[in-house]
Design brief:
The protein has 21 helices and 23 strands. With 732 residues, it is an alpha/beta fold.
């Protein structure tokens, strides 16, 4: 019995129990269970349950937990196995914390087993403040990594270890400031090709237990009450069996911001009618009034309640679980913290090393200057939607711990993160002279720049709110730019650690400084990982999950949801640093790519003797294209390193194909100096499909070019890496 059959069997049993329980409830008792802070029902022995929990990169907002690199950093690992292990860690620690809290009668917010993660929106525009919560700009990468996370989080047996949630459905990626009234217009092609694939993958292949609607409208319909999205696509086309939850207070937006309804009762009715079972917010407090006005039926309320109790039974909340014995000692265990450190090591991207300044030789350095507002910042480690670590290692602390007494470490924050001075009574730029002094007395400077959750994030959560969490441009704050200009005039080599969750314009740093590391928000042990990479104990191996643009000149308007000109698939002109790019300390080359197999299979429905094709993005012709590519890779350098082998596909004949080759497969490998490795990577639909202008996913042509390399096959990647991917022709 495959994992889907196991989950279906468990769901059928859980639903039967849920139906029996809900049948004993009055209509009012059913209605009160449709709110995120569901009350206890003493008559029926139902404990209170708060559905709202977060686990984006570790159990969040519930006290101590292992803090992983922010999701965008996890995406930079290109490591599906690691994402699965992370999801399992979140579920394990979530169970441990739930068990302990429930024992003490604590059923508060952030202490349940329903995690509203992962965020699989497409990071289509670098200005979006919440983009660092996502897994990047590519539908394929987002789908595969999001799926792995959900499999780890939920487990692959019938019973749920924890419940995942695919959010925010759909077509949601800013602007934050107008999200409550914004209508995201997307063509049928862009919907099917870009905005929906990750959600479909998590539903069809991952059996994700819940889906969260977005704040915005999509093509005129409010997402949390959209017949097209919730009924026609999610339930009917994809066969979703779990429950739908609204984003928080999004249903109230129906009548207060979107103005598609006039009253809370009408808003509650619109959401429930189209399949939104759970209200994060308080609009469903008006559900009984909506019923009395004839806007909703008892059957609709009953069905929503049954779906929600089905999830609670699948989790064992109602009648016990094998996971009830998970001990509190699992929380921030040494093994989990080590996994977070591994993730940080894999996530860091070496963007520039043109002067070969890295790795640093500790035996030749007497004094290290660590400068910048993020050098000793915990906020720069943790991103948003984070838990609490019991011990953080900032970049400054990581460097000090690594060098011990072999070198003197001098420090200056250099400037405030975005204010023009660090001390209120001082003049603007009050730390620049100190930074210059530190640089003058150092053999090398580690310059830690960037942002944190106070500058980029969700509307209302950011501290400065100058753009509701979004960025106005791709430049660092002016205070940091002035610090860079000052240090550019000194003779000391400068290594930049850019600690952001999004693409920035790093052209000034590339021109004036010696090397650039993109560290993202690297988690609780991030400073240790940065130090290990700076000094060559570990080779950097992360790859960009987003495009770094050369400024904003060619970017479309932020509110334009058409894909033209966006992401590596549709970019016009060269990127500053392309999607899929990242250097190592070694010289890894792809020697050859051989098409081992290429065949067309028929879609199957599955039975006891065959695993069904339960895949997202299949063409409508009943056929599935699959291939295997054998790639030979050699480490010609002197460093042991990880590397990410990437396969890109170009449809040679279809006019519906994106203008640039698309990612179709990837594999992280480890190579010793001089070692040659052969790996076989599968290519399969939907990679061989295209989407026509009407949104139909089709096979259009049977001739493809496969590129195998450690980057994209674009000219800028070739220029930056010094290597051209090899290619092979593939015909079905």
């Amino acid at each position: 019995m495959n994992k889907h059959d196991l989950r279906d069997k468990a769901r059928a049993e859980a639903r039967s129990k849920a139906e029996a329980l809900v049948a004993q409830m009055t209509l009012e008792e059913k209605a009160e269970q449709l709110k995120y802070d569901a009350p206890a029902n003493e008559r029926l022995g139902i404990p209170a349950y708060n559905w709202w929990n977060e686990g984006l990169h570790g159990v969040a907002r519930a006290g101590v937990a292992t803090v992983f690199p922010q999701a965008i950093g996890m995406a930079a690992t290109f490591d599906a196995d690691l994402l699965k292990a992370e999801g399992d860690c979140v579920a394990t620690e979530g169970r441990a914390k739930y068990n302990a809290s429930a024992k003490h009668g604590d059923r508060d917010i952030y202490k349940g087993l329903t995690f509203w993660s992962p965020n699989v929106n497409i990071f289509r525009d670098p200005r979006w403040g919440r983009g660092h919560e996502t897994l990047g700009e590519d539908p394929y990468l987002t789908s595969r990594l999001g799926l792995a996370f959900v499999e780890g989080l939920q487990g692959e047996e019938g019973e749920l270890k924890a419940a995942g949630c695919a959010k925010h459905y759909a077509v949601h990626s800013g602007p934050e400031g107008i999200r409550h009234e914004f209508d995201a217009i997307a063509s049928r092609k862009d919907m099917e090709e870009t905005y929906l694939p990750a959600f479909e993958t998590l539903v069809k292949e991952g059996d994700v237990e819940s889906v969260m609607g977005a704040y915005n409208r999509t093509n005129g319909e409010v997402c949390c009450g959209s017949k097209t999205l919730l009924k026609d696509i999610l339930r009917e086309k994809w066969g979703f069996k779990g429950h739908v939850v609204s984003d928080c207070w999004a249903i109230a937006d129906f009548h207060t911001k979107h103005m598609v309804t006039s009253t809370p009762e009408e808003s509650a009715a619109l959401a429930l009618e189209n399949g939104c079972d759970l209200n994060c917010g308080n609009t469903y407090l008006h559900m009984m009034s909506a019923y009395e006005q004839g806007l909703v039926t008892e059957e609709q309320i009953t069905e929503a309640a049954v779906r929600l109790f089905t999830t609670r039974y699948l989790l064992g909340i109602m009648d016990g679980s094998k996971y009830d014995s998970v001990p509190y000692e699992e929380v921030e265990s040494p093994e989990h913290v080590e996994l977070s450190l591994k993730a940080a090591r894999e996530s860091i991207v070496l963007l520039d090393n043109h002067k070969k300044a890295l790795p640093l030789n500790i035996d030749k350095i007497k004094t290290i200057g660590v400068i910048g507002p993020n050098a000793d910042s915990i906020k720069a480690l943790i991103g948003n939607y984070h838990g609490t670590g019991s011990q953080y290692v900032t970049v400054l602390e990581g460097i000090r711990a690594y060098v011990k007494d072999k070198a003197r470490v001098m420090y200056s924050d250099g400037c405030a993160l975005f204010q023009d001075r660090t001390e209120h009574l001082a003049v603007a730029g009050d730390r620049i002279s100190e930074a210059l002094t530190v640089a003058e007395h150092s053999d090398v400077v580690i310059l830690c720049l960037g942002l944190d959750e106070t500058l980029e994030g969700e509307e209302g959560d950011t501290g400065n709110s100058y753009a509701s969490g979004d960025k106005n441009d791709l430049l660092l704050p002016e205070s940091q730019r002035k610090l860079c200009e000052a240090l550019a005039g000194c003779d000391t080599p400068v290594i930049v650690c850019n600690m952001t969750g999004s693409a920035m314009d790093l052209s000034y740093m590339a021109e004036h400084f010696d090397a650039i590391l993109q560290t993202w928000y690297p988690g609780v042990k991030g400073g240790q990982a940065v130090a290990e990479i700076l000094f060559g104990e570990i080779s950097p191996s992360g790859k960009l999950p987003v495009t770094f643009y050369d400024g904003m000149d060619r970017l479309p308007e932020f509110t334009d949801y058409a894909m033209k000109g966006r992401t590596y698939r549709y970019i016009e002109g060269e990127a500053q640093y392309p999607f899929g790019y990242g250097l190592t300390y070694s010289d890894v080359n792809v020697d050859s790519a051989i098409i081992k197999t290429a065949e067309v299979k028929k879609q199957t429905s599955g039975d006891e003797s065959s695993d069904p094709v339960i895949k997202a993005g299949l063409a409508n012709d009943g056929e599935v294209y699959v291939a295997e590519v054998e790639v030979t890779v050699t480490n010609k350098g002197t460093f042991a390193t990880d590397e990410v082998v990437q396969l890109y596909l170009r449809n040679r004949t279809s006019r519906f194909a994106p203008p640039h080759a698309i990612l179709g497969g990837f594999c992280r490998i480890s190579l010793k100096p001089g070692e040659t490795v052969k790996v076989t990577i599968a290519l399969e639909d939907p990679s061989f499909t295209v989407v026509d202008d009407e949104g139909n996913r089709i096979h259009d042509g049977k001739s493809y070019t496969v590129y195998a390399g450690t980057s994209q096959p674009d000219a800028k990647s070739v220029s930056l890496t010094g290597h051209s991917p090899v290619s092979a022709e593939l015909d079905f």
